[in-house]
Specification:
single chain, mainly alpha, Ferritin, two-stranded antiparallel sheet, about 5% strand
Amino acid sequence: MKFAKLAAVFMTGALSVAAICLPAHAASPVTRFFMSNVAANLDFLEKSSRLALTRSNSAQVRAFAGSEAEEQAIAANAIDLWAGASKTPFIVVASAEPPMQTGRSVAVAEEQVMPDTRVPLGRANLDRLQSLSGTGFDNLYWQQQFDALKQVETDYVSYAADGDDPVLRSIAERELPKIERRIEALSKL
């Protein structure tokens, strides 16, 4: 009996004092979807633009590509910084209970349905560009840039309105006008 009481006291004390390390920010499915699409498209925009600097015969396309590569590298760095920062800090929770979820995280966890099935541009698109030069390159580059920029624009608009991470939402809001200007500049080529 004495042993049972001691074991119960020990277990209760251990559970109440035990520290469970949890990530400070566990990304929701909406955030993960946003991050994967935007990161892939920004990467494509930067790499294809660097390719355009050597493959295009058009001075206008090369000028656009140079600034596009810089713009998208900066945007990708902002998102990478967020991703790095959200993974590193830990919160110590002095409880054996699971962390409380808010309404948004519960609703998203229950839905598990992503907003759409768009596929970001990637390696296959870069390979197609790599095989071209001159006017053929310029035409495909223009179309792929337009497609990727429109996807990023859609993701920024959507996340700025409905995203669940305030820092990422502010990045989307800040970057959206830049993307809109890039689409406009591309349309003038």
